[in-house]
Each structure stands twice: as C-alpha cells, then as structure tokens.
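Good morning C.,

I know you're traveling, so I'll keep this short. The sequence:
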Amino acid sequence: MKSQNKSFLDKKILIEAIKMSFIKLNPSLLIKNPVIFIVAIGALLTTIIVLEGTIDGVFSTFNLQIALWLWITVLFANFSEAIAEGRGKAQAESLKANRSRTKARLLKDGREEIVAAENLKKDDVVICETGDIIPSDGEVIEGIATVDESAITGESAPVIRESGGDRNAVTGGTKILSDKIIIRITSDAGHTFIDRMIALVEGAKRQKTPNEIALTILLSGLSIVFLLAVATLPSFFGYSLHASGLPQSNNLSLPVLIALLVCLIPTTIGGLLSAIGISGMDRLMKHNVIATSGRAIEAAGDVDVLLLDKTGTITLGNRMATNFIPTEGVSLNEIANVAQLSSLSDETPEGRSIVVLAKEKFNIRGRDLAGIEAEFIPFTAQARMSGVDITVDGKIQKIRKGSVDAIRSFVFNNNGFFPEDIKQKSDELAQQGATPLIVARDNKVLGIIHLKDIVKGGIKERFTQLRRMGIKTVMITGDNPLTAAAIAAEAGVDDFLAEAKPEDKLRKIREEQSSGHLVGMIGDGTNDAPALAQSDVGIAMSSGTQAAREAGNMVDLDSNPTKLIEVVEVGKQLLMTRGALTTFSIANDVAKYFAIIPAIAVTLYAGISGKGALSVLNIMGLSSPENAILSAIIFNALIIIFLIPLALKGVKYRAESPSKSLLRNLCIYGLGGIR
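The tokens, ready to paste straight into the viewer:
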C-alpha cells in the first residue's frame, strides 16, 4: 500500500482533527498526557473563577482571556495529536477499501466447499486459480502462480509465489493473475496481515515507547517542580508587599498563578509528544514499511551495527552479463550473435542484459524476427535452459543457452561433445562466485556467457554515509571467503561473514549485542527467522515466508532489502525531532520565567518614580504584569500550532555524527527557544 502522503492542510483531515480536538477533552483521554491534563485543570479552575466573578458582578476581562487561552492551549495540543492520527486513518481507509468480501474454495475431506473468507480458520486449505482473490493470509503448499499485490504494495508489477521456497507467503486481498495454487491458511479471521496494518496505522494499538515513557516522567517531574515553585510565590510576594508597604490585595491571584504555571511547565513538547511518535510511523509508511511498534522505530534510530545480505541488498541480485568467452575455433562476434539471438524473447534481467551486452560491445542490434520462422523456447526450472529454433534454408537450427549440466545433456543428446576448456573455465568462474551460462547451437558448444552479480551503483557512497553516522556495516553471504572479500572491498562494507548459515547469523548478532551494540537485520526466509527475532530491528520482506514476517518487528511491503538504510534514517529523525522540540520547549519555558517574574515584581519596593529595585530585570520592558502574562500565555498556545508541521515532517536529517547533530540542534532549538 503506497502511503497516501496526505497534506497537513487536507480539508477532510483538518475537519476530522478539529472534531477530535473536542472529543479528546474527555478527562479519561487527557490524563494520558499529564502536562496537558494540568493545563486543562487550570483552564477549568479559571473558568469557574470567571463565572463566579460574573455572578458576583465583578467581571474580569483579564481572567476571561486567561481562561480562553488556556482552553485554546489544550485544544491545540489535542489537535496536534488528532492531525497525526488523521493521516494514519486516511491510510487505513485505503486499506479497508482494498479489503473485499470474498468467497473461499475450502478443501475438506478431499472435497471442495465454498465458504465465506471470514469463516476460514488457521490451517484450513483452500484453492485459488486465475482471477481469484486470495481469501486470507497463507503459505503456498502446492503449485506456482503470478499474484497482483498492488492492494498492499501499490506496485502494479506482478510477483511469483510458489511452494517450497522463501517466496511462498501470500496475503489476503491480493489477486491471482495466472495458474493455480493450493494455500494453507496461517491466520484466523481478524488477525490477518491487513487487519494488523489497519490497526497499526490507525494508531489504535500504538503504545508509548520506553523513550516516550521516560520523557513523560521527566516532563511530569518538571511540572511538579514548577507547581511547587508557583505555589510558594504568594507567600514570597506577600512578605515583599508587607515589607514595601503595599496592600495584600496586590498579591498574585489564582488565575495569574495558573497562567504562570502553564507558561512554565513544558506544554509545547507535552502537546506535541504524541504527534511526533505517530508521525514517525507515518513517515515509515511513506517508505512502504510497517512497524509493529514504535519501539522498533526508536531502536532503528539507535542502531549502530547493520547486517545486510549480499544478494539484492549490496548487489543487484539479478545477475548481469559481463563478458562472452568463446571456445576454440569460435569468434567473439559469433558467440555474441548467437547468445543475443537466444535471448531475444527472454524477459528475465539476465536475458535482457545479454541482449544489451551484445549490442553495446559488438554493435549487434536487436533484430526483427517477424519474417523469420522461429520458435522460442522459454526457460523452465526443469529444463534449466532457454533458446530458439530457427529455420534457415529449410533446416532447423536449435540454439540454446543454460546451465553447464543442462547444455551438456542437450549436446550429448544431439550426438555432440562438451569441450574440456569450457568445463574448466566454467569451474573457474563458479569458484569466483560468478555464474557461467553455456551457449550451444545444435550439437556444438560455442562458448560461455559470464554472468555476475553486480554491486549496486552508489552503494559504496551510502555505506560511507552510514560510517559517518557511526554505523558499522556487515555483509552476510554464502559465498566463499575469497569472493566475499572481493565484493566486500568493492562495496565498501566494514566487515563480512562468508559461507554464512542461519546459526552463524544468529551467533554474529548475539556477539554484537553482547558488546553493547544495537543490531539491525533484514531477511525473508524461514532460515532468517531466528536472526530477525534476535536483532533489535528485524525487517521482514512481505514476499518472504510467514515465519520471517512474524519474527521481524517491521515488514517491508516492497520487499526491497535496501530499505534498512531508510528505516535507520527515519528512526534517527524521530529521535532528533523529539530531542530538538524538547530542547526548544524547556529553553522557551526558562525564557518565559525570566520574562514574566520580573514584570510581575516590577512594582515591589517601588520608589517615587514608580519603579522598584527589581525593574532592572524587566529586560523586555513590559508595561504591566497583565501584558507579560497574556503575551506569554498567547505565545504558549500559538507555538504548539505553529510547530505541528515540524513535528509531523520531522527535523531535517543529516548524515553526521550524533555529537555534531546534538551541538547543532542545541544551537538552533535551544537558542531559538530562548529568543
């Protein structure tokens, strides 16, 4: 499912958020945010005072303004959370629209029975054929089919799902485009992958992360400290008023004390804290990654060791033709020409790369076979070769390319022989981690197509970027150590693990964790499940097995292994945003303290000029305590609404060391809060 990427100013989301701002005034909801709960109590007390004064005939415009701005502060804090939740709900609506009521063809006691999809239970077996909607999550236990997964990934390109491999997991709501498969259901109704996605993006099951809980406790502690400080102010002011000969009626009123308390406690970060957490999941959704918890996103921000599988992550995964190697007596042009001819109908990345290589290296252009009698032979897993049969001068030429064993059998069956130099060169390429494809025409071997898994362009620069962030990269591969070392050097990773088995991955993760590191990993197979479960951030491919998807704490809907880097960036951005706005909030509160208190105390110990000894502290030159309090409380409310876009978008992330980021953010948001 592609993220809806709803704008902050989307009309539908804004209207819904405004409604939710009032609904969230429910005390049972407000108490979940202690700081804003204190503001709401203060707003309620001030409102009661205003009403009592109105009844007694002593109406105070000043008190009314305080009450109104306190309620606005609470509503703005609720609005910030509601706007973030609204973006998630918009994504959930898209998922719900894609989820259709379908019928399932249930296999029971050898017979087929039509039942409603919601009646399926775990371990039921169903049949799906061309045009059918897959009724629920499951694993393919028999057959192979192409599946349209655009309902969850947003991508129109079909994918292959087959039994017996790492790509056997299917998701309810996706559509069979061709062939027939038998599926064993792996989830009960209401607990499918899409059901979990809807619950997560709606925020219904979003729990506070450890960092959020710790920050909430800190903010609550600061609020209690300021509450005690404000509670003692009337006593100090009463003593000062008595000493200066001023009447006690000039002492601080309850609305003033409430306004002062609200200005001093960290209401800014208190009002934005939930929005920051929810928007972190939203930003991850824009990369088509579902996090099963906010804890996983935060852990991604602290990850300092990344384990990356070689194939598909560091290398393209799709092998590319890099060279043609002819046998004795065959020219390079001849093998290039025949190799391209055998690949004209081959739509695999390998086949297309062969056509491109012949074109670029030998200027052999793709030819039009419309007027030629030709029969293309598609690749099959059983035959392990493909090619074309062409009629030339009334004689059929059989051109094939494929694995060493497959072409050897093909040549022998046509009364030919397999050259020793080709066998030797094929073995050498295989030992280097490359893939040799043999090209033959009738009973004669013409040479080898050298296929190589190419290191992705720009991947070295990305690893350099991660290194600047203080993250160590480890490549995991099943290749022999020599091949692994060569690819590791070319890609620029910090370390590698060659000939890795599942237990080796698990051991490597535990070693890093025992050294105090947080480890991130990505995988798609059942053999990756233990390592995914052990890692601090485990990203499972949506196309992978059910075991892998359940073991990880994130699921990549695009099944793109390079997403691990984006996930780390989103995690770091979440932590930076929360830290930056906390810094701004506390610095801003301190600044308001030094602005309001001198203005309130300016008349104490006043002389003939009307200015007291404390007036020197009134650096802002505020004319009266009322102006100081109102300006502070108005700013306190408005700053929440102005910072909502920043909380949702996140502080701009740069690939640099944490200490450098901390220093820069302290300067920007710390000094910004004071100003």
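Safe travels,
E.
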